Amino acid sequence: MADFIRIENLVFEYVKSEGGQPLRAIDDVSFRVPKGSFTAVIGQNGSGKSTLAKNINCLLVPTSGKVFVDGLDTSLPENIWEVRQRVAMVFQNPDNQIVSSIVEDDVAFGPENLGIDPAEIRKRVDSALTGVEMYDYRKKAPHLLSGGQKQRIAIAGAVAMEPECIVFDEPTAMLDPKGRGEVLSVIKKLNAKGITVLLITHFMEEAAQADQIVVMHDGVVKMKGAPREIFLRAQELKELNLGVPPAVELGMKLRERGMEIPEGLLTIDEMVKHLCR
């Protein structure tokens, strides 16, 4: 499978006030995101996850190293517009992304800025809202919606621009369990349609549903691999002050009590099926 995102020896430093030492937020990071895949990036606050996301979308430019999006070098000014058409971003707080007082107007904002024909915008808005199950709310005011609903509107706004990839920067961090479930369901549906997904999250049960996981700590990649490979290294994750999915934690405790529970069960459904057998 071809790579959609290729990160090679990326270094990014924030410049402090005049005379101050630069702060290195990303330190020699390299990994690849295959086209159409679902990659999760996990790590503690301050590990460099959000800085990484902004380098992918050209909101930041590498201090050294390279980021390629669909073959385009993000450090070249002439590529910025092309990269941002291919990669949309959804941030943690939907209120920071919603700019209009009517839901459908907000979803249309991105395509309008791309100069899309009005008739095509109408189709994209309706399709995007239907895809996130918010079409019936198209005439509503965003401030009257729940947190999960507002985040789905933000996702619809990204989808309406028809990107090939969406980077989600902790989109469920401010939501309750119901809202988190709604948003993750939408993300998985988008990925199933072929959109490349990069999800930054601190919820391990969300990361467990990805194709690959990248674990960051202090600006470096500590682990990368399939979820079952990563969560088998539970002790290493705990040393990085990271948890594991609830089903993995339960399996560990049951094994400590002498039960024969296979390693690699990632979800509650998998655990229930095993126990019922």
Structural key phrases:
single chain; 277 residues; alpha/beta; Rossmann fold; six-stranded mixed beta sheet; four-stranded antiparallel beta sheet
Summarize the structure.
By secondary structure, the protein is α/β, with parallel strands linked by helices. Helix content is 38%, strand content 23%.
**SS field, number of helical segments:** 11
Helix vs. strand class: alpha/beta
The end-to-end distance, rounded to whole angstroms, is 37 Å
In total, the number of strands is 10
Q: So what's the overall shape?
A: globular
One letter per element, helices H and strands E, the order comes to: EEEHEEHEHHHEHEHEEHHHH
Q: What's the oligomerization state?
A: single chain
Whole-angstrom Rg? 20 Å
The portion of residues forming beta strands comes to 15-25%
Named CATH topology: Rossmann fold
CATH superfamily: P-loop containing nucleotide triphosphate hydrolases
**Low-confidence sequence ranges:** none
Mean pLDDT: 92
Spatial strand arrangement across the major sheet: 6-7-8-3-9-10
The major sheet is characterized as:
6 strands, mixed
Query: What is the CATH architecture assignment?
Result: 3-Layer(aba) Sandwich
Percent range of helical residues: 25-40%
